[in-house]
Amino acid sequence: MKNLGNMLKQAQQMQTRMQEMQARLEQTEVEGGAGGGMVKVLLSGKGDLRRVSIDPSLMVADDREVLEDLLVAAHADAKQKVEATMAEEMQKATAGLDIPGGLGGLGGLKLPF
């Protein structure tokens, strides 16, 4: 019974930490860039696109494909940074909690953000 009480206490701690983490991620903004900074995208900590910045020199009709490629690259850069931020926040949220098998012990649980 004592073990069950500890598990419930840890679950409550985890829930509180996850809520705090989600709030921090909503406030976090991550910038990704490509083309030496000529194309930049700003994502929220949850991966929502907030802004796109394109250097005016890229606004040439003949360079449309280049611009498209740079947008994809800038988004990929920002997304990688968001994922690293989320992993760091998850590590903070689960610090000190005895989760069997670590996060893998959650059966490959995917979080909704």
Question: Can you characterise this structure?
Answer:
By secondary structure, the protein is an alpha+beta fold. It contains two helices and three strands, in the order αβββα. A three-stranded antiparallel β-sheet has the order 1-2-3. The longest helix has about 30 residues, at about 65-95. The model is unreliable at about 105-110 (pLDDT under 50).
In a few lines, what is going on in this structure?
The chain is 50% helix and 16% strand. The protein is an alpha+beta fold.
Helix/strand/pairing category: alpha+beta
pLDDT average, as an integer? 82
Instruction: Outline the biggest β-sheet.
Output: 3 strands, antiparallel
Helix and strand succession?
HEEEH
Distance linking N and C termini: 34 Å
Beta-strand portion reads 15-25%
Weakly predicted, low-confidence segments: 104-108
Neighbour order of strands in the largest sheet: 1-2-3
Number of E strands: 3
Helix content: 40-55%
- DSSP summary: helix tally: 2
Principal-axes shape call? rod-shaped
Radius of gyration: 19 Å
